[in-house]
Amino acid sequence: MGGVARVVVVGAGLGGLAAAARLAATGHAVTVLEQAPQVGGKLGWYGRDGHGFDTGPSLVTLPQVLEDLFAATGAPLSEVLPLQRLDPAVAYRFADGTTTAMPGHLEDVPARLDADLGPGSGAQWAGLLTRAEAMWRATEQPFLRTPLAGAATLARLARDTADVRTIAPGRTLRGLGAAYLTDPRLRMLLDRYATYSGSDPRRAPAALLTVPYAEQAFGSWYVPGGLRRLPEAVAARAVERGAVVRTDAAVTEVLVTAGRAAGVRLADGEVVPADVVVCNADAASLYGRLLPPQAPVRRARTALRRVTPSSSGFVLLLALRGRTPGLAHHTVLFPTDYDAEFDALFGGRGRRGSPKRPVADPTVYVSAPDDPATRPDEDSESWFVLVNAPRHEPGAGVDWTAPGLADRYADQLLATMAARGLDVRDRLRWRVVRTPADLERETASPGGSIYGTSSNGARAAFLRPANASPLPGLFLVGGSSHPGGGLPLVTLSAEIVAGLVGPA
């Protein structure tokens, strides 16, 4: 860009904060505006009576991305925030009663699967991850770390036909998995990774196979004290480099002057002028609500209407008496019929227009860190329980504010957990219920979509909103823009945007 730019960052989620830190470190005058009373976005925290809960992501993958961020902006990550590698990363319980736990190191996985699911299971999974590793090497630099440029991005990926065959652009995650995995339990393990982006494995591209590879090759990590410490540390780094972070500052409009972004207007009428606006709000909110109707972004708005929003989540925060022997950091309780879950989330067989509904027999995710910061004493536990849920869409789908619905569904989930071997109802001190409607209200994510747009459809990744908007001076970071949702990808989006803006 050349010269010091006045940069306004809309939203203090991890993507916005990382962009602020990088841009401030390269000499720009950066102001971050966050509607909530605290930074973090979906990386929230809830505390009560000594119990504490991360209310968003519960593990860190691809720690190198965070190490790159901190190294580029000041003191290294190791001096600021310790990371603890999880081993096992996740424990799984299937409907037939069998269990397995995914080791924290890739080389240990095949033997564990053989022991728990039967001989040959490990070799099948290892074969699949060999393909996943090739996909990772083919896509990491040209896709994950590079701005999205439509056909040009496809051309970069197609620099040789071997890469195209590796990525399998016409195949789904479910379809590619079926070519390697014969055990239905292994197929369930793979399908789960589609939900990392709020997607349906029957429609999501095979390239999502890179997610389990990255998780198992580079490890799953926890931040002692809770992942909420991550955005706090990045915000502190941004301020250290000269950025200003303002909370309780809701942006209601991105201003356009002479055909380029010129600043923002706040809810109280204050105008904050800028040469560059970096939007960490959901792309649907940006293009649908924050930009004036006459803004030159018609094609971006049209493209956004062609993608499927990601699913949301229904959460229970459980304050429990006593401890659970042998409890892993993460536990996943699978249902008998996984497809029924995706039918409920996305309607029918993933077709638009079919009725969406709360999942009757959902996969249950339990995050229970063994961390003194999360409990009042050693004879207590704090569980974050998540199930995938359709977005909040009154009149068009599920109205999560309907009287009694949230509590009835919470009771049903506790009964489901009990039926699958984790009955904590007699240990419950209290519970807090958080629905997709709550998520929408607290994070301004339309319908409570956790990941912005889903990866449903073979070309979904290339339809995701680009980091450089069609409006000069306006850039997008965060899970609803390229390269996608999840902590490492939103952090990479900030790296891409900082590169597009350039140093002062």
UniProtKB/TrEMBL annotation:
<dbReference type="InterPro" id="IPR036188">
    <property type="entry name" value="FAD/NAD-bd_sf"/>
</dbReference>
<feature type="domain" description="Amine oxidase">
    <location>
        <begin position="14"/>
        <end position="323"/>
    </location>
</feature>
<dbReference type="InterPro" id="IPR014105">
    <property type="entry name" value="Carotenoid/retinoid_OxRdtase"/>
</dbReference>
<comment type="pathway">
    <text>Carotenoid biosynthesis.</text>
</comment>
<feature type="region of interest" description="Disordered">
    <location>
        <begin position="349"/>
        <end position="379"/>
    </location>
</feature>
<dbReference type="Pfam" id="PF01593">
    <property type="entry name" value="Amino_oxidase"/>
</dbReference>
<keyword id="KW-0125">Carotenoid biosynthesis</keyword>
<keyword id="KW-0560">Oxidoreductase</keyword>
<dbReference type="InterPro" id="IPR002937">
    <property type="entry name" value="Amino_oxidase"/>
</dbReference>
<comment type="similarity">
    <text>Belongs to the carotenoid/retinoid oxidoreductase family.</text>
</comment>
<protein>
    <submittedName>
        <fullName>Phytoene desaturase</fullName>
    </submittedName>
</protein>
